[in-house]
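> call design_seq(struct)
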């Protein structure tokens, strides 16, 4: 497919109505907010978007809406991972029809397979999908860690164009070193703490739950570190943002509750998380409110006290 993602991608939250149906009107406003703030791409229907508590048809509706609302202003990546290659390919090709450029794919998990099984899983999906495939290495959630050597091998496949690394930073460094000379392949981090370090070793992009809440600041971090090579200014901005990093997953991983609460505070609907996830505690909301105030935001308190 040839198109390689890079820059700051927002793993979009999914706003829900009180009855837990998707609030598409609010979703459109969230997307407009992100694009107007300068993000380089959207991830629709990813983990932060709570795809794991949605039906297959709901996932399709979210991908369709995300592509429609983006209206080609920025490129779209869709979360298309399923437990079988057949379903993943179906969702990937649906995403392509909607206008997405990439599909984010987790390895098989729960019924764990061998490294050969994982290799063939990704190769089959890459060969039969009409979007570029982005590997999602997220052992903290799946219990499956793709070795740096396997990721390097998969990077040789024509239609595998990137990896989203949510393992430890040492693993990311190994992947970046092994793939540095691979044409048409980029390395992303999926962890806020690792964004600046990832740029410093040559990584090309980042996802972060926090981008939903602070897109302008996260894009600025990329511009300072990558485009302007101003490490001093990037460090200073990173220090200001670092208080948010641990809060994003303080009550669970993966968990979009805190960032949704933060968005509600600044007047951009985040809303509730879908069951069986639970709502963020007042303690977490207070801490997020305090960090937003430090950055100069006017906030609406969500706590009753």
């Amino acid at each position: 497919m040839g198109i390689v993602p890079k820059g700051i991608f927002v793993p979009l939250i999914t706003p829900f109505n009180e009855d837990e149906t998707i609030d598409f009107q609010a979703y459109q406003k969230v997307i407009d907010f992100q694009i107007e703030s300068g993000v380089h791409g959207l991830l629709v229907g990813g983990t932060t978007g709570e795809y794991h508590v949605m039906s297959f048809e709901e996932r399709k509706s979210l991908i369709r809406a995300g592509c429609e609302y983006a209206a080609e202003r920025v490129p779209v990546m869709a979360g298309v991972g399923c437990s079988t290659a057949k379903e993943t390919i179906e969702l990937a090709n649906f995403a392509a029809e909607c206008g997405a450029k990439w599909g984010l794919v987790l390895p098989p998990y729960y019924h764990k397979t061998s490294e050969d099984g994982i290799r063939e899983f990704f190769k089959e999906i890459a060969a039969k999908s009409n979007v570029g495939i982005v590997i999602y290495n997220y052992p903290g959630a799946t219990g499956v860690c793709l070795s740096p050597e396997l990721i390097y091998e998969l990077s040789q496949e024509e239609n595998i164009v990137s990896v989203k690394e949510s393992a430890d930073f040492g693993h990311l460094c190994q992947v970046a070193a092994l793939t540095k000379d691979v044409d048409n392949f980029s390395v992303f981090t999926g962890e806020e703490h690792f964004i600046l370090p990832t740029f410093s070793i040559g990584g090309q992009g980042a996802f972060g739950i926090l981008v939903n809440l602070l897109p302008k600041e996260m894009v600025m971090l990329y511009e300072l570190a990558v485009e302007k090579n101003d490490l001093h200014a990037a460090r200073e901005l990173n220090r200001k943002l670092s208080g948010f990093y641990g809060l994003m997953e303080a009550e669970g991983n993966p968990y979009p509750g805190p960032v949704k609460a933060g968005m509600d505070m600044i007047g951009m609907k985040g809303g509730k998380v879908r069951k069986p996830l639970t709502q963020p505690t007042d303690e977490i909301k207070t801490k997020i409110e305090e960090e937003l105030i430090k950055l100069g935001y006017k906030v609406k308190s969500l706590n009753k006290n």
